[in-house]
Amino acid sequence: xxxxxxxxxxxxxxxxxxxxxxxxxxxxxxxxxxxxxxxxxxxxxxxxxxxxxxxxxxxxxxxxxxxxxxxxxxxxxxxxxxxxxxxxxxxxxxxxxxxxxxxxxxxxxxxxxxxxxxxxxxxxxxxxxxxxxxxxxxxxxxxxxxxxxxxxxxxxxxxxxxxxxxxxxxxxxxxxxxxxxxxxxxxxxxxxxxxxxxxxxxxxxxxxxxxxxxxxxxxxxxxxxxxxxxxxxxxxxxxxxxxxxxxxxxxxxxxxxxxxxxxxxxxxxxxxxxx
Length: 275
Known about the structure:
The protein is α+β, with helices and mostly antiparallel strands. It has a single domain, classed as Creatine Amidinohydrolase (Alpha-Beta Complex). It is built from four helices and 14 strands. The chain has helices at 7-30, 37-50, 124-143, 150-163, and strands at residues 54-55, 74-77, 80-82, 96-105, 108-117, 174-177, 183-187, 204-207, 210-212, 218-220, 227-229, 235-237, 240-245, 248-251. The strands form four sheets. Strands 7-6-8-13-14 form a five-stranded antiparallel beta sheet. Strands 1, 2, 4 and 5 form a four-stranded antiparallel beta sheet that branches. Strands 3-11-10 form a three-stranded antiparallel beta sheet, with no helix packed on it. A hairpin with a 6-residue loop joins strand 10 and strand 11 (227-229). The two termini are 29 Å apart.
């Protein structure tokens, strides 16, 4: 299903996006050396429930997972890149942590992810990897103009990832959102421009570049959810939910301190914040 939202629904989506962005930034600020992943999950639960929102993850049971997920946030550490099931693990100095969060507020979903290094000793390889996923996200959003096609977004992401020396896995990627978390169209992190669904105002997209240092192959943990790099290399994942508008793009999950979301049209540069 591809869902086109009304202007009123897009306004509600802005509130959901602001909530997701705020929760992620709060959790990032609390995640220090020694923080347990289960504490992060509990904090996420309290922030979601306290805002009167609903988790998109607790009861989520897709075909690719061993559902239901049973937790409020994905916590992926180091070689884990997607769907990291929170577990009894205390973060160490230099760990690369990816947090992925989707919530529903007043019937509209927003989905976002951030990656960052915990502590005071960030490995340069991890810093570079995170930066590339953020650049790929900026490129994908810049390509997501009204009347562009999904292939344009995918090609922009893939160009940055491959141009930086990373292989691209297209099994998991971005997707439509709206009244539910995962909708069509699927947005692979590589593709050919000029192909696929044409973007229309009212469409919400979760664009999510992710990369692994030296492989494109994933393996699944015994928990049935956590996806890791097949070689044990480090990974990173960055995501925003955006709305296609008549004037361009609104970044709904932009952190509040990154400035007004604004739109984009006619080749203007689009400022996408550090996440």
